[in-house]
Amino acid sequence: MTLPTSPVATVGPVKIVGTGLLGTSLGLALRGAGVAVQLTDASPSALALARDLGAGTPAGEEDPEPALVVVATPPDVAAGTVLAQLAAHPAAVVTDVASVKLRVASAVEADGGAAAARYVGSHPMAGRERSGPAAAHGDLFAGRPWVIVPGAHSGDDALVAVRNLAADVGAAPVTLGAEEHDDAVALVSHLPQVAASLVAARLQDAPPDALGLAGQGLRDVTRIAASDPQLWATILAGNAAPVARALRELRDDVDAVLEALETAADAGPSAPGSTGPLARLVADGNAGVSRIPGKHGGPPRRYGAVTVLIPDEPGALGRLFGDVGEAGINIEDLQLEHSAGQKVGLAVVSVVPSAVAPLEKELQERGWHLVVR
Amino acid sequence: MTLPTSPVATVGPVKIVGTGLLGTSLGLALRGAGVAVQLTDASPSALALARDLGAGTPAGEEDPEPALVVVATPPDVAAGTVLAQLAAHPAAVVTDVASVKLRVASAVEADGGAAAARYVGSHPMAGRERSGPAAAHGDLFAGRPWVIVPGAHSGDDALVAVRNLAADVGAAPVTLGAEEHDDAVALVSHLPQVAASLVAARLQDAPPDALGLAGQGLRDVTRIAASDPQLWATILAGNAAPVARALRELRDDVDAVLEALETAADAGPSAPGSTGPLARLVADGNAGVSRIPGKHGGPPRRYGAVTVLIPDEPGALGRLFGDVGEAGINIEDLQLEHSAGQKVGLAVVSVVPSAVAPLEKELQERGWHLVVR
Questions:
Q1: Is Cell membrane among this UniProt entry's keywords (chains A, B) (predicted)?
Q2: Which pTM value belongs to this model?
Q3: What pLDDT does residue B126 have?
């Protein structure tokens, strides 16, 4: 399977400071596109590994001046490193990949001077719990958003250079202000992480029988609770004010829910002031979740679901999707559900609504056992 | 594809009171197993629909006495209906399917008398947001837990009858006390629902650009926020005390997180008292989520993941799973990820760890583009 390629606009050399997951992946992506890459890292072994993986060449005294510097250090040293790189390379555009932007943007602005025109912040929204160069891959950014955060004094050349970088590694560039970005990630990334961890933390002392009743809802809500504690402590602390704002609003809602529950517990579930606020909470959640974009950034779409019983044997899912594919129907989304104590599973296949009936007919004809819910 | 069948132990007739989603599905399952079913419902149209779907026969004056009565009314009238059915059928075992058990169990115990020996509570953990007889299906309970909640005075005959019922409709019986059950569902079902709705509610007024950064984490955490407000208000209010207990503990954790964030916001992210509590939250969440059972109720297992780039065209997933199946490898779990603005998706295929390397090799040989994260 060959992905379509497009011409590369990034002018090298690109110097990457910090060869962790993001830095090394960036180096691999750029090398794959034929761009010269210089690497540095405080750790000689991380640097050697990135070099050996093919992410670039360790920076040396004789190197040509880089056209673009990407600071891919841990977020707590990003600001200082950006300032140092702006000073060390007076003709280069400098960007950073920290997941929180205001701190770095403010440091560059406070430093003053003409160098600020050469800085534009970035936040490639890519990567996972795994870190370090060994987990790096040139496709890390494929299809992911890459937020471009212009500084107060960023020049057009810098903006173009960073946008080209994002596009050249297969990412989808989107431009936001620093505070706008930090508020956004607080809401759509940091608050969900906190919520997942809060719910999962309640399970630590749960009786085993209680955990035995766990269904797909709990699994969905707590999936990202398996994240790295140190990494997330740094991220949350680095975006503390916006996360605190969002979390305070959530806590106000928690208090309203608690008041309604206490009314129901004391005066019965039909008492005034009990079900009303609870229904409002869930209705508000309905409204919120319907605003999350669908595939490819388009408006949210309601899909139809076809639920199929799957025997637990190799190839079963393969046969199912082979059959769906032969019907010429595209799978928009898929969830597998685990059963408690039974050797079957359920595959919930989401398709466009007009495809539901044809798909059901097709699958039933081929002997699949459908479940209507 | 034929599912294995086992002999049916339930002795009919079974009388089902309330032909909504659960009652009608139960009727369909029992009729499929050859058991005689009598139906009643306060709504003549719901009753007629259940009959027409094949769930049983509307109860009449000339009917033989039922051996087993299943109360499948809305939860707020379950207790009263159970008492009425115990009185109306002095030889029958009576069970109910309300998702909260203490209220009903207490009512039966308070009523006193020999009838209590004939009552055992049930909670089939099946069904979805859709309700009503039209959504019913005989396989609703397949592979799902069916909690059996003995009353204080339940006799052995009643316990056996209800366990047989659960097994005959394909469910996995598990026995818990009423308070134990209500605390369990508060923790593993109700609290996650509240958390998902709380996070989703914050999105109502979010700027569109913020929503454009939404990733898989937000989608996972808020998936169940699309639930029915009225239904959930009734469920939460009916289990108010246990849910309030769990939510209060969560709120205490929220306060600790807020304190750490406020320290970080005021004194910087490296200040004492900021990252420590945040790391502890995520670590506690790690511990909690690792206790959720894996497939088939076994201990949690760590799977390896292979991430594959999928072009957005019909049949692509089918080809992928055909290839996985031909490699003889079982797919343990699957997640599809949506990209922002790109016509590709990612399929994250979970397999047992020993299968990761062979699968990667197999897929690469067949031309699939793997992403390492």
A1: no
A2: 0.81
A3: 84
Q: Which residues of A touch B329 (CB under 8 A)?
A: 314
Amino acid letter at B140? L
What is the DSSP pairing of strand B333-337 with strand A172-175? unpaired
Contact B192, A222 (CB under 8 A): yes
Which of A140, A146, A174, A202 to mutate against chain B (most B CBs within 10 Å)? A202
Which helix (H) or strand (E) segment is B337 a member of?
strand B333-337
Residue B200 is nearest to which of A220, A260, A289, comparing CB atoms? Answer: A289
Start-to-end CA span in chain A (Å):
37
CATH code 3.30.70.260 region(s) in chain A: 304-371
- Ramachandran category for residue A98: left, alpha or beta (phi over 0 → left; psi -120 to 50 → alpha): beta
Q: What is the mean pLDDT of chain A?
A: 89
Asked if the C-beta of B107 comes within 8 angstroms of chain A's C-beta atoms, the answer is: no
Task: Give the chain B residue nearest A217 (alpha carbons).
Answer: B224
Which tokens go with A338? Answer: 């685990």
> Nearest C-alpha of chain A: how many angstroms from B370?
8
Which position has the higher pLDDT, A2 or B196? B196
Instruction: Please write the tens of the pLDDT for every residue from B173-218.
Output: 999 999 999 999 999 999 999 999 999 999 999 999 999 898 889 9
Q: Residues B27, B70: contact at Cβ < 8 Å? A: no
Q: Which of A135, A317, A340 sits opposite B321 (nearest CB)?
A: A317
B309 touches chain A (CB under 8 A): yes
Predicted local confidence at residue B185, as pLDDT = 96
Q: Give yes or no for B300 touching A (CB within 8 A).
A: no
Please state the rounded mean pLDDT for residues A5-14: 86
Put simply, the chain B residues between 82 and 101 with a CB less than 8 A from any chain A CB are none
The pLDDT score that the predictor gives to residue A28 is 95
Residue B185 near residue A213, CB atoms below 8 Å = yes
Give yes or no for a contact between A111 and A196, defined as CB atoms under 8 angstroms apart.
no
Q: Which fold has domain A14-176?
A: Rossmann fold (3.40.50)
Topology of domain B304-371, CATH: Alpha-Beta Plaits (3.30.70)
DSSP collapsed to 3 states, B181-203: HHHHHHHHHHHHHHHHHHHHHCC
Taking an 8 Å cut-off on Cβ atoms, the answer to whether B373 and A315 are in contact is: no
Looking up tokens 């005075």 gives B153
Tell me what percent of chain A is helix, strand and coil, each rounded to the nearest 5.
Answer: 50, 15, 35
Nearest-CA distance from B229 to chain A in Å?
5
**B239, B186 in Cβ contact below 8 A?**
yes
C-alpha to C-alpha distances, A113 to A94, A110, A117, A118, B217, nearest whole angstrom:
15, 9, 8, 10, 40
Burial (CB count <10 Å: 0-12, 13-18, 19+), residue A173: middle
Regarding an ipTM greater than 0.85, the answer is: no
User: What is the pLDDT of chain B when averaged over all its residues?
Assistant: 89
In chain B, what are the helix, strand and coil shares in percent, each to the nearest 5?
Answer: 50, 15, 35
Note the pLDDT tens digit of each residue in B103-145: 999 999 999 889 999 999 999 988 755 667 777 888 889 888 9
Please state, in angstroms and rounded to a whole number, the distance separating the CA atoms of residues B96 and B344. 48
A312 in contact with chain B, both atoms CB, cutoff 8 A: yes
The pair of structure tokens assigned to A261 is 């529950």
Cβ count near B161 (within 10 Å): 22
What is the rounded distance in angstroms from the CA atom of residue A234 to the CA atom of residue A161? 29
Residues 6+ apart with CB under 8 A from A13: A35, A36, A37, A38, A63, A64, A65, A66, A67, A68
Element (H, E) at B120: strand B120-124
| Interface residue B245 vs chain A (CB under 8 A) | no
Parts of chain B belonging to CATH 3.40.50.720: 14-176
Which one is predicted more confidently, B343 or A102? A102
